Each structure stands twice: as structure tokens, then as C-alpha cells.
Amino acid sequence: MKDQTSLYGQIQEALHYIRTQTDFQPRYGIVLGTGLSGLAEEIDTVAEISYGDIPHFPTSTVKGHKGKLVFGHLGGKPVVAMAGRFHYYEGYTAKQITFPVRVMKFLGIELLILSNAAGSANQHIQAGDIVFIRDHINMQPDNPLRGPNDERLGPRFPDMLHTYDRQLNAKGLEIAQKHNIRAHEGVYLALQGPNLETPAEYNFFHIIGADLVGMSTVPEVLVARHMGLKVMALSAATNKCYPLEEIRETTHDDVIAVAQGVEPKMRKIVMELLEFLG
Ligand code: HPA
After folding, report:
1. Largest CA distance in the chain
2. For the stretch 113-129, what's the b/e string if a residue is b when 16 or more beta carbons lie within 10 angstroms of its beta carbon?
3. Of 54, 180, 249, 253, which is the most buried if we count CB atoms within 10 A?
4. 183-220 confidence digits (pLDDT tens)
5. Is cis: bond before 243, omega within 30 of 0?
6. Does a structural domain hold residue 210?
């Protein structure tokens, strides 16, 4: 009876395993990005499940990424958080990267909150600033929605006009302002990585309308919108990529260090947002 071959069947299998471990009902899903996983420590944890134990879940390979689902309360609200996310550059397909988001939807979440570290392609966005994503440009070579569409998951041609929740961004900006945290709204451009970009590329991305460049988030957002989830995404700007004179050599450790400096601010904003949500 079990259909392990279709995406839908695999989601059901993952769900079934999770339900043998916990009956916790999350309303909000959280994906924690590079250097930003500290928020998971604030969760009043009810259950934790390693990715490796969940059928069909990929496992993370990148330094600074843990791999577990954390269930519990954050800001008094029931959440499930992905401590550790997957990236295209690790070799996964966009479908594999986004499988956990499918599962979180079936666990009952209504809103997905994502964080990431990104380079700033906007002269007004400094390293250490927070940016609420208001739109994206997808330049990754794979799409998680490619292939046969299962109408039980979502429509063949999902619309992308209202991808990011602008009301939540406005609330987030208000919270940031209250705490004197530098924050903006901006356009995130997704690349495959793993190399950072050349000066000519950063310049090009600035010209075509990017405020941020990064290697994650967009696949998960596409799948979340495919399934009708609300989405909010926050970037920690970790390095300046524009104007060209301000570009510096940047290592992954540099990105993690700056992101970790931003993490307490992001934590504050996300917790207050969750408190504010109904
Ligand atoms: N480019 C791509 N991804 C990134 C960067 C960058 O400059 N900084 C952090 N993630």
C-alpha cells in the first residue's frame, strides 16, 4: 500500500516516522541559516529528531550546520525548526533540499520563516545589517518544482506575485527600529555557489536589481509557496560586494563570524515576531 516512489509517498513516510517520535503540532516552521542556528537554543524543546533518522531526509555536510528538527515553543508559539539546512552546492538536487519543507507543511505549519547569510550588493546595506527579503531573483540552475506535478502538493504553475509577506516584513522592520537594529527590505538573488562571485559578477547582480546575493533560501521558498505557505525570510548581510572598492576577500569562516554577530539581533526580531503572531 505504501507508495515510496512518489514525492507524496516519501513525505508520508517521513511524516509517519516523525509521528512515532512526537505528536507535537507546530504552527510555524523555521529554517536556520549559516552561523544563525543559535535561535534553536532558545526553543523550549519538546522533541528533537536527527535528519539521519527521518526517511528520505538529506543529511548536512557543511561546517556550522547541525542536522536536526527541533520541536517546541519559541516566543510562546509552537514551532518546528530545521537546525541545519541543505544547499545546492553540496550536491543535492533542489527537490532534496526542499523535502523537509514539504514535511513541515504536512506537520501543520502555516508560515515558514527562513534565515540566511548573504553578500550585500547594495551600497546602503552594511556587513552586520539585517535585510527582510521582499522579492528574489532565482539564478540557480535547478528548480524543485521541475518534473511531474502532484496536485495534492500544489499547482503546476504557482504564482509568485506575493511570495514574501510584506506585512510581516513591516512588523519586523518596526521591531528592529524599536531595538536600534539596522534593518532593510531587499531583493535576494540566489546563485548555485559554492564560489563567491567575481567583482564583475557582483556588479552585474547590482545592476539587475539585487540587494543581496546568496546560495540558499529560494528553493525552499518556491516549495513553500507551491504548497500555499506564508513566507518570511531574513538575511544577515555578512560582506560588502558593492561598490567594487569595498569588496574584500571573504572566507566561509568570515561569513560565519559576521553571521554569528548578527544572530542575537535576528533572534530578538524573530522571537518578538512570533510573540506578535496570533
Ligand atoms: N556571495 C554568495 N553567497 C554569500 C556571500 C556572497 O558574497 N556572502 C554570504 N553568502
Report:
1. 61
2. bbbbbbbbbbeebebbb
3. 54
4. 999 999 999 999 999 999 999 999 999 999 999 999 99
5. yes
6. yes
Give the residue among 92, 95, 67 at the shortest CA–CA distance from 81: 67
| Per-residue pLDDT tens over the stretch 22-81 | 999 999 999 998 878 888 889 999 999 999 999 999 876 655 555 899 999 999 999 999
The DSSP call for residue 53 is G
Question: What residues does ligand 1 touch, defined as CB less than 6 Å away?
Answer: 117-119, 191, 196-197, 213-215, 238-239, 241, 255
* CA dihedral of residues 162, 276, 178, 169 (deg, nearest 10): -10
| CA pair distance 52, 80, nearest whole angstrom | 17
Closest CA to 218 of 153, 160, 151, 265: 160
Q: What is the CATH number of the domain that holds 230?
A: 3.40.50.1580
Res 278: pLDDT: 78
128 in a structural domain: yes
Atom of ligand 1 nearest to the CA of 255: 9
Evaluate whether residue 271 is within a structural domain.
yes
Provide the domain limits for residue 106.
7-277
Q: Take atom 10 of ligand 1 and give the residue whose Cα is closest.
A: 118
For residue 2, tell me if it sits in a domain. Answer: no
Q: Report the number of distinct structural domains present in the chain.
A: 1
Q: Residue 1: its pLDDT value, please? A: 47
pLDDT of 180 > 60? The answer is yes
| From 241, 251, 253, 260, mutation site for ligand 1 pocket: most ligand atoms within 8 A of C-beta | 241
